[in-house]
Amino acid sequence: MINLNKPITYIKGVTINRSSLLYQELRIKTCADLLYLFPFRYIDKTQFYKINHLQNSGSEVQIVGKITHLKTIKQQRGSRVVATFIDETGSMELVWFKGVKWIKESLKINTPYIVYGKLNSFNNSFSMPHPEMELLSEYKKKVQTAMQPVYPSTETLGSKNISNKVVRTLIQNLFVEIDGRINESLSEQFVKQYNLMSKKEALLNIHFPKSQENLAKAQYRLKFEELFFIQLQLIRKKIIRKSKLKGYSFENVGDKFNNFYNNSLPFDLTNAQKRVLKEIRKDVATGVHMNRLLQGDVGSGKTIVALLTMLLAIDNGFQASLMAPTEILATQHYNAITELLKESNINIALLTGSVKSKMRRKIHQQLEDGTLHILIGTHALLEDKVIFSNLGIAIIDEQHRFGVAQRSKMWKKNELPPHVLVMTATPIPRTLAMSVYGDLDISVIDELPPGRKEVKTVHRFDSNRLAVFKFLKDEIAKGRQVYVVYPLIQESAAMDYKDLMDGYESISRDFPMPKYQISIVHGKMKPADKEYEMRRFVKGATQIMVATTVIEVGVNVPNASVMVIESSERFGLSQLHQLRGRVGRGADQSYCILLSDVKLSADAKTRLKTMVETSDGFKIAEVDLKLRGPGNIMGTQQSGVLNLKIADIVKDTSILVEARNAAIDLLTDDPNLSKPENLVTLNSYTKHQKTSGLWANIS
Ligand code: ADP
Ligand code: MG
What we know:
CATH superfamily of the domain at 456-614: P-loop containing nucleotide triphosphate hydrolases
CATH class of the domain at 456-614: Alpha Beta
Structural class: alpha/beta
Bound molecules: adenosine-5'-diphosphate, magnesium ion
């Protein structure tokens, strides 16, 4: 038996030339690489379709029937042959654009054929261009092969005669050499418990399935295994973190928390907020280090949860920090929290890039002597000079890039690292969160505060702009304020600025001074100017805010009730959702108007339709995930986990959940996989860990 780590040149039929091509094109080097080159689809020649059962799936099908009629249609260059093809259930067309003469002469009318090929559909009628044709009588004489694998390929491989058939033969040869001796990677008992196909059978059937049923079992086994080892790693990491990494214990719920909760809380918490708070309290009271991700849609009320958590820290003699991505947002947090805590004697400070050095020194001083309780700010918090005397909790708001906090010196004086709470308004679909942040604790606020009116969302074409402007005037007459947002894409920045300025001019014409006041904010402005314009809008001195997406994050102007998004087809779903979240914050009915060109791509249509149909951030995130794929959503940082060979995080949700539960059950029973019956799994796990090397620095 040959060793799977040997280069593929050990396999019969692999010349040096072929091996270097396979490496160059598909990164296949060893026998194992070839064994794990999985087909991405199968040609199912075991199935015959009836014409009235055909689906518009773009798939390849096989049909038995007869040609009743042939005609030649002249076209601009040459001609095409169209055959009417029928079976007992219906009729369709077969079409040839090439070899027309030969086709016409060789095809037999009214004789049973098997046709095979890819379907096109138009207005519910189907056609098949350039089908493979075989007389039924010929077909019946031959031995039939079952489903045929189709392997990933490249143009170069095709042109160098490494066809799908060649790859198939090489893999066949490989199976002959390894002679069926493929080691099981999961323990026997485990394979039984989860009713899995054996590894050996699974690998054989993924390449050469004997039936649809066997293929399904093989796919399940391999997907399950792939997801299982990732989950095993994540959950083990979480267990280790929880058992090894000590954290401060906030045992007491003290005066600060209780006074605020009982006397100053401006509203009742939603059940979701209460639940999350309980989850946090349970975490921080145990002496274990908390590393928690708090997901909650825009407006779901994360700030109050953050505040209560900070009070808990203060009650236990610690300091707290809250970091936001922009100055505007940090300032808003500072103002809101100062207002909420005005009855208390808690010392709060704001630290951003524009804080003067005298104030800065004071903050540094108070931080170090412990008299400052809460520090709110931007990335300025991460500067070396910012050193707390005892930071108990670090909260990061609206932050996608994890890991920043770790580089800071904030808790240089700490004995233990502070608890970390990361809050994000970008809902991550559950399965994706499970895979990418599976080792973090995750809390979700999945309920909006009561009385919130859903933002009415409509999609209008640019040609309706006048009607839209009329609507804006009516809303402004009622005292409301309006956002008009333009896209700003790096690659087309110059054009985008021009669009923004053109738009601004046209709005200025339609909404003339002094009746209307307009603010404009964009990325090329100096921070101070931006801030000034923002303030004017926040104060209500201007009624219209024309902006690029800089207003995306967190800004809160309750009186703004209309969000107009220009060229909305150019925005991603999560961005649209974030923008819409800027309105609907006050008591009035709010609106979101998506303006677009008439010409829309299929994806753009889906995005706009989704926005009109739902305001549930998690649903929107699911659609986004389907449209863009996990890699694009999470960025390349986590590409390791998303770089799956066979499983698909979007489609294989249920397998993912099963694999995760299996991993939890196994580790609950045997945390170190030290029981003899788990030895096989342990060995595979160790190997898997060596090769994957992901997970380094998520938190
Ligand atoms: P986000 O999760 O987007 O950060 P915020 O914390 O800014 O949301 O809350 C949005 C608004 O909802 C704020 O004005 C806040 O005062 C209000 N709010 C939060 N929780 C509740 C609640 N339980 N009941 C009523 N209003 C609430
Ligand atoms: Mg917020």
